[in-house]
Design a protein that fits this description.
- This protein is an alpha/beta fold and 338 residues long.
- The chain folds into 2 domains: 142 residues, ornithine cyclodeaminase, domain 1, CATH 3.30.1780.10; 168 residues, NAD(P)-binding Rossmann-like Domain (Rossmann fold), CATH 3.40.50.720.
- The protein is 34% helix and 26% strand.
- The protein contains 12 helices and 16 strands.
- The model has no long low-confidence stretch (mean pLDDT 97).
- The structure holds nicotinamide-adenine-dinucleotide.
- Nicotinamide-adenine-dinucleotide binds next to helix 4 and helix 5.
- The site of nicotinamide-adenine-dinucleotide (NAD) has 29 residues, from helix 4 and helix 5.
Length: 338
């Protein structure tokens, strides 16, 4: 029997609806809910960096997942990040593929570009966290990093924080911040800046999404009652984490394997107890409270979970089938050695 795979290039993924942040937030929240209901298998990602040694420049991640419930979809994301791409700016820093399989026959059913999915789901995870942990009536967001995730972060925060009036956006490359700010003209005021201090001081929600390998958000810049979102491993200094009353992560099992994570470093040094790190699924499933005080600082940090890519990939695949998008590839006409 012929086995066919639907191949979806980036344009198909977009035509299938990936840029609909409202829908992506809904799917991401559902993934965290299903995780809390023990309906998801999402082992920690495996990672290697090359060249082998002290200073890898490219990283590869394999992220196998099964999503149960009414989704019933096994799949995997094969992700990669390139510091060379970050420097040249000729290609995206992160380039990813999503593969979906049939749960019964185990045939691959779809292969799609995962780059835009990653960018949307990463910010949507922060958006879901903000829904539960951001201050009420947040008006100002201080964002650092005007790259791919910087763009989707503004999309997500705008969607989950209807009271948001202004985004202060900082990047080492001010021109990049200016260009991104211009994309949101007419939607929300985005002020491009080249000072982190100016961007984050006094902000109701602070979000960092940079390729920096050194922390740059100081504890004294974080106001009482703010929410801090850290998308990379170590962008906020230890004092910011220590000031936070609620520390929520996407997956502690995964984060504790990342030695660069500031949260992990604080656990290893004995400054933070594992029991004080909550999973977002626990908050989404009401096993732990979201924000319950105006004057508490809350913090969310993520390492990225494959289940978000697979739940979105499954949705996009079904949309593509409905809309006749993508190209069919034949794995075999007749399988050998059946
Ligand atoms: N947690 C997750 O699920 C997840 C998923 C994808 C990416 N990420 C991480 O998010 C980060 C951003 O990814 P991206 O694809 O947007 O990268 P990108 O290269 O598109 O953008 C990064 C931006 O950060 C800016 N920058 C670097 N250091 C800075 C500093 N000290 N101050 C201000 N700006 C600075 C760069 O100039 C660049 O514009 C990366 O660290 C990536 O690993 C996390």
């Amino acid at each position: 029997m012929k086995t066919e795979i639907l191949f979806m290039q980036q344009e198909d993924v977009i035509a299938a609806g990936i840029l609909d942040m409202k829908k992506v937030l809904e799917l991401v929240e559902k993934a965290f809910y299903l995780e809390g209901q023990k309906e998801i298998i999402n082992p920690p990602k495996t990672v290697f960096g090359i060249p082998i040694g002290e200073n890898p420049q490219s990283h590869f991640f394999s992220m196998p997942v099964y999503i149960g419930g009414d989704v019933n979809r096994p799949g995997i994301k094969w992700a990669a990040e390139s510091m060379a791409n970050a420097k040249t700016g000729n290609l995206p820093m992160g380039i990813d593929m999503v593969i979906l399989s049939d749960p019964v026959t185990v045939q691959p059913v779809a292969i799609m570009d995962g780059m835009v999915i990653t960018a949307m789901r990463t910010a949507a995870a922060a958006g879901v966290a903000a829904k539960y942990l951001a201050p009420k009536n947040a008006k100002v967001a201080g964002c650092v990093g005007a790259g791919v995730i910087g763009r989707t972060m503004i999309m997500a925060l705008k969607q989950v924080l209807p009271s948001l009036e202004q985004v202060k956006l900082c990047d080492l490359d001010l021109e990049k911040a200016k260009k991104l700010a211009a994309e949101f003209e007419g939607e929300i005021e985005v002020i491009p800046l080249d000072s982190v201090e100016e961007a984050v001081t006094g902000a109701d929600v602070i979000a960092t999404m940079t390729t920096s390998r050194k922390p740059f958000v100081k504890a004294e810049w974080v106001k009482t009652g703010a929410m801090v979102i850290q998308m990379s491993s170590w962008e906020v200094e230890a004092g910011v984490v220590k000031k936070a009353e609620k520390i929520v992560v996407d997956s502690w099992d995964q984060m504790k394997e990342n030695n660069l994570s500031i949260i992990n470093k604080l656990v290893q040094s004995g400054d933070l107890a594992e029991k004080d790190i909550w999973a977002l699924n626990e908050v989404v499933c009401s096993k732990k409270p979201g924000r319950d005080k105006d004057n508490e600082i809350t913090l969310f940090s993520s390492r990225g979970m494959g289940c978000l890519d697979i739940i979105i990939g499954d949705y996009l695949y079904k949309e593509a089938v409905k809309k006749g998008l993508g190209k069919k590839l034949v794995l075999w006409d007749e399988a050998k050695w059946v």
